Model the fold of this input.
Amino acid sequence: MKSIQDILKAFNPVEDKYISRDFQAYGIELAEKLEDWKHRGLYIRLAKKHPRAVLEKAFSFVVDSNAKNKGALFMWRLKELGVFKRSLAKPDLAPREKDQKIKSKVKKKINDK
Done:
């Protein structure tokens, strides 16, 4: 891990004017190393929301492999590490008032015929 002093030495205000936080710099660094510049926003968001240790573990897995699409392998490894978990709570399936009104109108039309 780089120290703050090293980050500040490498910071170029002309080129890096939009990078103001550490997670942004790390996300850009991931995008460059994974050769996936197109999805740099995704890597910045991952660096912001998830612990760096988990991202480093997934990145080291990708670096050790000889993959064509390093970004896809990185995302797969994050999924395997359990970063992306689905919630087990069921969505609210109760009908809305608007839906009930529509159903009642349809029933009236059917009964009128």
Q: What stands out?
A: The CA atoms of residues 41 and 106 lie 47 Å apart. The helical segments are 4-10, 22-33, 40-49, 52-64, 70-80, 97-112. The radius of gyration is 24 Å. The chain has one domain: 4-83.
